Amino acid sequence: MATRRVAVVGGGIAGLAAAVRLRDRTSAGTEITVYEQSGSLGGKLRTGELAGGPVEFGAESFLMRDPAGGESAAVALARRLGLAGRIVHPSVGQAALAVGGGLRPIPGGTLVGVPGNLQKVAAVARPTPEADRGGGGPLLDVDQDVSVGALVRARFGDEVVDRLVDPILGGVYAGRADDLSLVTTMPALARAARVEHTLLGAVRAAQAAAPRAPGEPVFGTLDGGLSALVDAAVAASGATVRRQATVRELTPTVAGWRLTVGPTREPEYVDVDAVVLAVPARPAARLLSEIAPSAAKEIGGLDYASVALVTLALPEPTLPQLSGFLVPSTEGLLTKAATFFTTKWGHLRRRDGLVLVRASVGRYGEEDQLQRPDEDLAATVHRELSAVLDGPLPAAVDGHVQRWGGALPQYTPGHLGRVAAVRAALRAAHPTLRLAGAGYDGVGVPVCVRSGETAAEEIITALEGPGR
């Protein structure tokens, strides 16, 4: 039997998870090659160093559980890679909202800020319970999708959206609740809304469908940094890794695919049996423009937000016993979230007294704010942190600005339906080509891991053929 060759285009965690699954589920002789345009693997997983200690310059953690209550795909991958023993959890879980010039604890009992108990959120926002009346049937029709903001504003009022839902969603997506798809960003609530007649009932039903034991950790990370997950995945996949290798064209052949790799003047042509396309939507659309123009147009319309992560090493500041805080856009600050790393994560606490604080800067539609020089961003963050904490912070002894251009997909209502249609068309026309990654299935390490693994499974099925 001829050796099978599979190309994984994109070396983020979705592509690497696909490579590991391909290695686990195909014959030992299968040649897997990962093509990464940049010089580094892992995508938004990047552990760096600041003031002599490790710090995440990208994603900070992962969910421990999947929506059905089992262990998340990120935990399962860590276990597969022998890293389960390095999973650690936050030492401090309580976060706050910066509202009205002060910090107020984020109320408990919410679902991404949408309250399941209106009394619990009264200190932060004033809901409008009189608007949340049942009567006309379920909140959503079977195939309906709406923006999160539209649903919550209509039922609970503006303050719940502006002061709770928007900053929490914005902390994940850097977008606006009024633009983001309910079905994509809050699938459990969307499912409940197809049955329940009130939003309060839908939140409670969604919470009951995925119960969490008291004290069970929601988030985890790896002692030593999330780049360890990247390195271990590369090793386990046994893949040939090609860095600085831009795939510029995909061309169908009789037996599979031909990749055009490298600069225009000196192209390299590589023939493979199958391709996992694990790159953001826009570069994927460019590669599909000739072979699947309708699909390319559909996914190429997905917009992205850019963010910058500003990390400061501060000598023994006085910080509240919080994991961090979120900032509603109505507060008028450049900073949209801050994490007190060395408070939140016990394993990062330092003997030298230095504290690491990371701020996230940049909301969708405000990319012009990110054009400032690094020093200006760092100074603005320092000033705003001092104001929120009601006292001047000491000068930073070290700092780092990590810019993530076009990093966070903005899923408008109907996103998952559009992606499903694109995948169905590609599956019918090109069964050995699959899409994977955050642009299609959602953000977060577990979702991206699962997306890559699913693409790999479908490639394996296509290569084995019917009846195998």
What is the topological layout?
Elements: E1 5-9, H1 13-25, E2 31-35, E3 47-50, E4 53-56, E5 62-63, H2 73-80, E6 87-88, E7 95-99, E8 102-105, E9 110-111, E10 114-115, H3 148-156, H4 158-173, H5 182-185, H6 187-193, H7 199-209, E11 219-222, H8 227-237, E12 240-242, E13 247-252, E14 257-261, E15 268-272, E16 274-277, H9 281-288, H10 293-300, E17 303-315, E18 324-326, E19 335-340, H11 341-344, E20 354-361, H12 374-388, E21 398-410, H13 415-429, E22 433-435, H14 438-441, H15 445-464
Parallel strand pairs: 1-2, 1-16, 2-12, 7-18, 16-22
Antiparallel strand pairs: 3-4, 5-11, 6-11, 7-8, 9-10, 13-14, 14-15, 17-20, 17-21, 18-19, 19-20
Helix pairs in contact: 1-8, 1-15, 2-15, 3-4, 6-7, 9-10, 10-13
Keywords for this structure?
single chain, globular, five-stranded parallel sheet, 23% strand, alpha+beta
Structural write-up:
The radius of gyration is 23 Å and the shape is globular. The chain is of the alpha+beta class and 468 residues long. It contains 15 helices and 22 strands. The protein has helices at residues 13-25, 73-80, 148-156, 158-173, 182-185, 187-193, 199-209, 227-237, 281-288, 293-300, 341-344, 374-388, 415-429, 438-441, 445-464, and strands at 5-9, 31-35, 47-50, 53-56, 62-63, 87-88, 95-99, 102-105, 110-111, 114-115, 219-222, 240-242, 247-252, 257-261, 268-272, 274-277, 303-315, 324-326, 335-340, 354-361, 398-410, 433-435. It has a 7-stranded mixed sheet. Strands 12-2-1-16-22 form a 5-stranded parallel sheet. Strands 5-11-6 form a 3-stranded antiparallel sheet, with helices on one face. A hairpin with a 2-residue loop joins β3 (47-50) and β4. The protein starts with a strand and ends with a helix. The model has no long low-confidence stretch (mean pLDDT 94).
